[in-house]
Amino acid sequence: MDSIRIRGGKPLYGTIEISGAKNAALPLMVASLLTEGTVNLGNLPHVADISTLINLLCQHGVKAHLNGESNENGSSNGRTISLTAEEITSTEAPYEIVRKMRAGALVLGPLLARVGKAKVSLPGGCAIGTRPMNLHLEGLEAMGATIKIDAGYMIAEAPNGLKGAEIRFDSVSVGATEDLLMAACLAEGVTILDNAAREPEITDLVHLLQAMGADIDGEGTERLVITGKPRLHGANYSVMPDRIETGTYAIAAAIAGGRIELTNTRADLVSSVVEVLEHAGVSIETTDNGLIVSRDPASPIKGVDILTQPYPGYPTDMQAQIMALMTVSTGASMITETIFENRFMHVPELTRLGANINVHGRSAMVRGSDGLVGAPVMATDLRASVSLVLAGLAASGETVINRVYHLDRGYERLEEKLAACGADICRVQGS
Ligand code: EPZ
């Protein structure tokens, strides 16, 4: 298994081009199941989860063509993919794929809406929480589907098609909003999704679905109104920039000190992160295609309290990274995780680097330490892994992060992007 080795203590100077958003690209790709036409997506990130989803879609009968593309000045602008689901040849999403990546379970609603049946593995829990599917299932049942759980699979049927329904989510779920939004586009009549998630990735999905001919009102709000259509058509669309990658590299500049320009992204996608960083003493300047993040390595990081919340609140996917930053602050920070029940797996690993963190239930009290010291550590999930990379950039000596396949699920060429800004970081090939 590969590992990443970092020798910390170097300020970072340079430019990092942000990739397309993994968490937007995955549902956009799934939306191709809704039409016989071809969906062409640009700015696709080169990350492992995308390949896993391509495998899943292909086994449903989708024809996929992936191309590397350069823009006019020769720099890479992500890959493009063409997805054509002319015929759905299998309605089963197997455990072997869905257990690796729970976004695979998003095929449930679209398959049911397109062909009236689906057999999708329950994804099971993961390192960050139990992650149930009840909101997806209750919503689809309200739209007329019958669903039973058998041998670890959700077996859903709607032989006469789905019907529009008024659905109010008990709690905010990104995945359930995406799943039901896609299903509603082919349902008969009007579906209202209340207390819907407002994450920018959902707005990206709304825009693709509209380009495919869907009738959706209320984008960016907690109430989406979808008037179903008998069919959708193909479309061309470009995946939005990755706001979590943007925030992660902003924290890299903050923790290591220096000045990094982040391009091919948008500052408005990371407003809550920018606000926290500014309170911590980091300078942020907005540019036409991104932002510039800088901190004089001699100036201190101040402790800031953080509460994760659904968008537009501070993202749970940026909680581990801000915790890494707070470990080198001059004060104290209370970090409260409200979205997932077990998302502090990075704490014991950060502690190995000398961080002073105490967890009390859903909150972690982080007291700034005199300085982190490099050590071997273990990645446990995607964002936990990257928080260890960030801490390694600030630690003296050598940090080795093991099990980096977690990082490869969601960060494209991470070590190259950081090395280009002066970080002493490399990948060590495993056996
Ligand atoms: C998406 O997961 C993201 N994944 C996650 O990113 C992200 O952390 C999460 O949204 C929250 O922002 C993708 O977009 C592929 P949820 P999702 O449904 O959709 C509970 C990363 O690091 N819930 O919004 O699975 C659930 O247990 C990943 O890139 C139910 O109770 O998250 C959780 O506590 C990790 N019942 C909360 O809602 C349900 O039916 C939010 O989950 C569904 C969810």
Strand and helix map with partners:
Elements: E1 3-7, E2 12-17, H1 22-30, E3 38-44, H2 48-59, E4 63-70, E5 76-84, E6 92-93, H3 95-98, H4 108-115, E7 117-121, H5 134-142, E8 146-150, E9 153-157, E10 166-168, H6 174-185, E11 190-194, H7 200-211, E12 215-217, E13 223-227, E14 235-238, H8 243-256, E15 258-263, H9 271-279, E16 283-287, E17 290-295, E18 306-307, H10 319-326, E19 332-336, H11 346-352, E20 356-360, E21 363-367, E22 376-378, H12 382-394, E23 398-402, H13 405-408, H14 414-419, E24 424-428
Parallel strand pairs: 2-15, 3-14, 6-7, 10-11, 18-19, 22-23
Antiparallel strand pairs: 1-23, 1-24, 3-5, 4-5, 7-9, 8-9, 11-13, 12-13, 15-17, 16-17, 19-21, 20-21
Helix pairs in contact: 1-2, 1-7, 4-6, 5-6, 6-7, 8-10, 8-12, 10-12
The structure holds ligand EPZ.
Question: Summarize this, please?
Answer:
Helix content is 29%, strand content 28%. It is built from 14 helices and 24 strands. The radius of gyration is 22 Å and the shape is elongated.
Keywords:
29% helix; four-stranded mixed beta sheet; 431 residues; alpha/beta; 14 helices; binds ligand EPZ
